[in-house]
Amino acid sequence: MDDTPSTHTEQSAKTLTTIIYALYAASFLIGITAIAAIVINYVKKDDVAGTWLESHFRWQIRTFWFGLLWGIIGIPLTLLVVGWIILAANAVWIIYRIVKGWLNLNDGKEMY
């Protein structure tokens, strides 16, 4: 195993990215963890700039904001049946994005 500082820094960033995925996943049980995750994404974004992990941060940030957008659209529409459909589809989409991102991270692959 290479023990150079850049390898250690990349491993540390990969571990942090894993933690962020875990925080997003935990947000289904404890909603506030998504807020912690997005804050970490923005605070540490410069640390991963120019690396393959930058694509994961971009993926996580987009997942948060689009998930929030569809949640905001879906909640008032729950008075109509369509709101429940939007919220269910949003939950499935968020789960997909967490799983897809986490698997690609584990395999050392960039996100598209």
What would you note in describing this structure?
There is one protein chain. The protein is mainly alpha-helical and 112 residues long. Helices cover 78% and strands 0% of the residues. The two termini are 28 Å apart.
Number of strands: 0
The shape, in one word, is elongated
Tell me the span between the first and last alpha carbons. Answer: 28 Å
Mean pLDDT: 94
Write the H/E string, N to C: HHHH
Largest sheet: none
Number of helices: 4
Instruction: Please tell me how large the radius of gyration is.
Output: 16 Å
Oligomer: single chain
Query: How does the helix and strand content classify structurally?
Result: mainly alpha
Low-confidence parts: none
Task: Itemize the secondary structure elements and their pairings.
Elements: H1 5-26, H2 32-48, H3 53-74, H4 81-106
Helix pairs in contact: 1-2, 1-3, 1-4, 2-3, 3-4
